Amino acid sequence: MSGLVAGLLLLAALSGLLVVLARDPRRQVFAMAGNGLVLGLLFLALQAPDVALSEIAVGTAVTPLLFLAALAAIAMDRANGGLKGAPRIRPKIRPRTAPWTAPRTTPRDESAMTPRWRLLLLALALAALLPAVLRVALAMPEFGAPTAALGQSVNALVPELRHVANMVAAVNFDLRGFDTLGEECMLLCAVTGATVLLRGARGERGDVRAGHLPGRPVIPRADATVLVCRAAATLTLLFGISVALHGMTTPGGGFQGGVIAASGLLLLYLGEGYAGWRALVPSPVLAAMEGGGAVLFVLCAGLPLIAGHPALTNGLPLGAWKDLYSGGLMIAVNAAVALSVTGSFGLLLVEFLEETREPADAPASNEADHEDGP
Question: Is the CB of residue 198 less than 8 Å from the CB of residue 355?
């Protein structure tokens, strides 16, 4: 194991510990984003650039943004009395004191979990897992060492059989494509469940206003901010499409490109405000992309079965080596994953950000409140 990998493993453990020990939810979100970035660098050092792209896109960008949107929605509900039994309070940052040294202002609840017990349980878990972690770390191959026998077999056979240069895409969309189909269906079910739960409590009206916390000034957006967000959103969308299209030739593919493209929707929200963002990002289009991608994947697997062949049998022209359209059926599967992932993550962003809008019975606010979020 090289010093680079050892250092990144140590940094990943320390950043994960910061996530656990962070007490304020907002600081915990940023610590989680930092941990995702460290894990992405670790995967890159372990020669897994596709996994690194996925981790950075999901763990560093999309997931922290969803948590921040959820925190903003909770603050809006509390300010407007939306949570049952929740007091009308403004969110505030806890004092910068260690939880085990802060003065106690309420009577001790002997049955409650205390910070001291949490640290004790954490220490016991680390003591139990540390031997296994050290054994796995010491058994890892050196940085740059040849891959395992299975990887060598894939590298030797797939280029000639499928004419693709990205072995990870060949494994995900061909060699074990049926597993990927199951994962895609799980993503579809998870996003559908989250959407039903959120819309069931909130409704589906599209004519409401952006939320505004009482006492917080609404600062108009500068023209420079709008310009930068528009340019960044366009470049992010184009980069995501490029990563998805080049999935057969370079690290990336439909999943990574779809997540990157979906994250550009948040830049539109930051630049255009709630009203402009809601007009530019229609939920039915994202839902159609999500479902359409899943249906296309099912057809790629089911049509060969109907014809009497194994699922995902590659019957299309394979194309030329290192060509953008090489891989045969894998091109269609990659496109299906890109559509479904873009629609799924885009729909999640829309649903979580919709939680920050004004309640239906809230009094009318000024134009600035209508354009800017919480």
Answer: yes
CATH 1.20.120.1200 positions along the chain are 1-84+115-145
C-alpha–C-alpha distance, residues 308 and 300, integer Å: 13
Kind plus residue range of the DSSP H or E element containing 299: helix 283-306
- Does residue 133 carry a pLDDT above 60? yes
Identify the weakest region by mean pLDDT among 3-17, 274-288, 323-337. Answer: 274-288
What phi, psi does 227 have (nearest 5°)?
-65, -45
* pLDDT score, position 88: 43
- Taking the C-alpha atoms of residue 334 and residue 247, their distance in angstroms, rounded to an integer, is 7
Region of residue 219 (left: phi > 0; alpha: psi -120 to 50; beta: else): beta
**C-alpha span between 65 and 33 (Å, rounded):** 9
- 1-84+115-145: CATH topology: Four Helix Bundle (Hemerythrin (Met), subunit A) (1.20.120)
Alpha carbon separation from 17 to 32, 34, 107, 113 (Å, rounded): 10, 11, 29, 19
What pLDDT was estimated at residue 269? 84
319 phi, psi to nearest 5 deg: 80, -170
Integer-rounded Cα radius of gyration of the chain: 24
181: how many CB neighbours lie within 10 A of its CB?
22
For 218-275, write each residue's pLDDT tens digit: 777 888 989 999 999 999 999 999 999 999 998 889 999 999 998 888 888 888 887 7
Between CA 279 and CA 210 the distance in angstroms is 13
Whether 209 contacts 357, CB under 8 Å: yes
pTM of the model: 0.71
CA atoms lying within 13 Å on the CB side of residue 198: 22
Classify the C-alpha dihedral 283-286-288-291 as positive or negative: negative
Residues 6+ apart with CB under 8 A from 114: none
Q: How many CB atoms lie within 10 A of CB 296?
A: 16
